[in-house]
Amino acid sequence: MRIDVVSIFPEYLAALDLSLIGKARRENLLDLSVHDLRDFTHDRHRTVDDTPYGGGAGMVMKPGPWGSALSRIAAESPVTGAMVDKPILIVPAPAGAVFDQQMAYDLATAPHLVFACGRYEGIDERVLEHAEEDFDVRPVSIGDYVLNGGEVAVLAMVEAIGRLIPGVIGNPESLVEESHSDGLLEYPVYTKPGSWEGREVPEVLLSGNHNKIARFRRNKQLERTAARRPDLIVELDPATLNRHDRDT
Ligand code: ADE
């Protein structure tokens, strides 16, 4: 997969050199480049923002530098004009569709993702309209709160998407049983020692009875999800539940 990130703070994205995502880059599973938006300005001050038409607080990102940056990235995209799909342009913004695990799965199969990190009050709307010519444009929010810019949202999304690329996680089994993979939160986990600060590991986990362990874990998933995220229980497809689930 190819990923391009455009930002006025490329240093923010340095964390993408670390851990599993950094390793995926070094192993060429992920071809990720970060671009400084100011490299696409043409004035002495490398200006990227200006006052909003219509008045109001704050500054708006100018269209010119964004247009140049996105044209260059589109021209160099591995997704060519001959292909039906365009590269996907993700614009992190609190006014976007909310990012979730399903969106991460969908995006993990795309050949080319581009992230446009806005700052200030946002990017001139015409940039997104114009970009529709070359990209599948998707404003995306990582939650109902406001960040100072898109960079932190990109760190979260690239990590969530990147770990789903085949080969990035050593043991793909761990992707099967994690929170949200089946619409439920993950069960609690324990390791040695068996007794710690007077607290014991649940006995069933020491029993060696795989059916009982699976039932215990499934019950914990259901209990946890009902207590912490009742909204997820409402969304569950009843067809995915079995008789034992209903008794929980
Ligand atoms: N930029 C500012 N706030 C954001 C959010 N909640 N999600 C994505 N990008 C943002």
TrEMBL record:
EC number: 2.1.1.228
Catalytic activity as recorded in UniProt: guanosine(37) in tRNA + S-adenosyl-L-methionine = N(1)-methylguanosine(37) in tRNA + S-adenosyl-L-homocysteine + H(+)
Gene3D superfamilies: 3.40.1280.10, tRNA(m1g37)methyltransferase, domain 2 (1.10.1270.20)
Keywords, sorted A to Z: Cytoplasm, Methyltransferase, S-adenosyl-L-methionine, Transferase, tRNA processing
Xref: SUPFAM superfamilies: alpha/beta knot
One Pfam family matching this protein: tRNA_m1G_MT
tRNA methyltransferase TRMD/TRM10-type domain mapped to chain residues: 1-233
Enzyme class: transferase
Main location per the UniProt record: cytoplasm
Binding site for S-adenosyl-L-methionine: 118, 142-147
Signal peptide start-end: none
Places the protein is found: Cytoplasm
InterPro entries: Alpha/beta_knot_MTases (IPR029028), tRNA_m1G_MeTrfase_C_sf (IPR023148), tRNA_m1G_MeTrfase_TrmD (IPR002649), tRNA_m1G_MTases_N (IPR029026), tRNA_MeTrfase_TRMD/TRM10 (IPR016009)
Assembly and oligomerization: Homodimer.
Described function: Specifically methylates guanosine-37 in various tRNAs.
Family: Belongs to the RNA methyltransferase TrmD family.
Classification via PANTHER family: TRNA (GUANINE-N(1)-)-METHYLTRANSFERASE
Protein name: tRNA (guanine-N(1)-)-methyltransferase
Species for this entry: Paeniglutamicibacter antarcticus
Name of the encoding gene: trmD
